[in-house]
Amino acid sequence: MYHALRKAFFSDAHCVSDSTAKSYEELFAKLDTNKDGIVDVSELKAGLSSMGVYLGKGAAQKIMTSGDADKSSGLDLNEFSEYLKEHEKKLKLTFKSLDKNNDGRIDYKEIKQSLTDLGVGVTDEQAQKLLQSIDVDGTMTLDWNEWKEHFLFSAASNLQDILRYWKHSTVLDIGDSLTIPDEFTEEEKTTGVWYKQLAAGAVAGAVSRTGTAPLDRMKVFMQVHSSKTNKISLVGGFKQMVKEGGVASLWRGNGVNVLKIAPETAIKFMAYEQYKKLLGQEPGKVKPHERFMAGSLAGATAQTAIYPMEVMKTRLTLRKTGQYSSMADCAKKILKKEGLKAFYKGYVPNILGIIPYAGIDLAVYESLKNAWLSHYAKDTANPGILVLLGCGTISSTCGQLASYPLALIRTRMQAQASIEGSEQVNMNKLVKNIIERDGMLGLYRGILPNFMKVIPAVSISYVVYEYMRSGLGISK
């Protein structure tokens, strides 16, 4: 694949340690074009490109960040050699973990098994295409030298990273926590990487929700107050909210919306692990349908535990100036005026909404993933961040579209007692009333601002997540 680099480095790098060190020096000398003893980002890109190695966007900078111990914006020979040695160790460990039968080669069945272990289903043909994108000699197996040649300077550090990309990750926070939890390998669990990734995801979600809070408040405002006789436009709604409470009022309810991320994530993850054990037919492995069932049950468990915070979020979002002084004051007044059961108003439609959301979300993601694997996997095993963001955004949006009427009913039920003169009705009667008054479109009030916040929410959460991963030392 990278013939010039292979000739300069891979052909004899595995002979003895002295030869490996010499190979590092020779490669460094070729990359250090201005002979100042430092290889910077531009030299790394240009040098590898001239050898036929084309780095993905941001890959050169990631190599620099990982290897630049003295933060000098460049790698000297020692830093360069140390980076390659450490990177090779990681690649070797991953190669061994994928080589299920320990024969020194990886075939398409082992790739398929590794994907299955992560809860990602692919066909034999798709696994073969993934293998072909790395296979240099056309044997339909990968030996250690092919593996090292392909991944030493790859944007993804190894195939296992690429396989993990195809998990349906919950990193992309769009404000609704109904997705299937993340899947972690045994290695990630034992090394403690999983809790760092959950922490990074929680921070990313908090920043994302804060950034899109005005659109989220507008969605709730239109869900509760907009109707055929009281049409609320996007601009008119914002003007109304700013006039009533100032610009800061656009962030009402965001505090509790951010606060509930951590407990919900933790409960969902722990419950998911337990449900997988109960439902799984093979220990340590999870099939797509088992993953869906375990994830849905975990989501229901987490929602049950934190649902009072969901009710408070709606009440605080819709509150008028001076109605509540704090979250604690809101909880106290709801409890005193309406009793404990008020904290579970709208619970049934909320739980029912998990099934269509998660089911359609996963189904669309799998379809998009399979379409990409079928058409493009022959050229590269790495889908690239735009493909992954696109798949995740489209599938989440489809999931929201399917479950939106239930989300609207939930919000209306949560808000009923806070609206003067509002009739306290059950779910069935509320649906009937909305359809009679506003038609089927009435069940989709507020969907415009809801969709408007998807792309900025996804973008913000991804960028913050990557920074957090880097800061916590888990950047690939």
In short:
It contains 22 helices and 2 strands. It has helices at 3-10, 17-31, 41-50, 59-67, 77-98, 108-117, 124-132, 144-151, 159-165, 186-191, 193-211, 213-225, 234-245, 254-259, 261-279, 288-318, 327-338, 347-376, 385-415, 427-438, 447-452, 454-471, and strands at residues 106-107, 141-142.
Characterization of this structure:
By secondary structure, the protein is mostly helical. The chain is 66% helix and 1% strand. The protein is built from 22 helices and 2 strands. The chain has helices at residues 3-10, 17-31, 41-50, 59-67, 77-98, 108-117, 124-132, 144-151, 159-165, 186-191, 193-211, 213-225, 234-245, 254-259, 261-279, 288-318, 327-338, 347-376, 385-415, 427-438, 447-452, 454-471; strands at residues 106-107, 141-142. Strands 1-2 form a two-stranded antiparallel ribbon. The longest helix is centred in the middle third of the chain and has 31 residues, at 288-318. It is elongated, with a radius of gyration of 26 Å.
